[in-house]
User: What shape does this take?
Amino acid sequence: MNPIHSVAIYCASSTKIKPIYYEVARQLGRGLALRGVTQVNGAGNIGLMQAASDAALEAGGRVVGVIPSFMVEQNWHHTGLSEIIETENMEIRKQTINNMTDAAIVLPGGCGTLDEMFEIITLKQLGVYLKPIVILNVDGYYDYLLRHLERSMEENFMRPAHRDIWKVATTAEEAIELVFTTPLIDESVRRFAKI
Assistant: This one.
């Protein structure tokens, strides 16, 4: 079992999405809290970010939000979190979240979520980010993306060994289990970075 004390949650801030996404976000927030794991997210006060945060807080968990100052100025931040960390910009926000967590779980989301997910996948491919990454494929949301990643390997843009960079879950419970059980890697992964 991995020593998991805090997990990054990357997810949508959209409010016009199917109820199943909210349900799984709440299950994830609650499940992490009940295991004593601190949730770290982008501090948003709407969408899946709010749902995961509120569920964790209601279960007695700790939630740390990391958010750029310009978003705080727009009142886009959740004011009820355990802690808010303001950053100068989006890049520092992502770096801060990655540095202070032991794993990452990616819920459905748009361009911002995809940006965060591909950055940590790339960093892991390069042997910089060595922690578990779990894609929570709720209701088949990431099916096409996962197929595209498979094609990237078939077309030799990635090695088949890179398939181990991420794990895929379909439920919150499975995602939580994977962050605890996915084998950790070390810098030796860098030898696979080049095709």
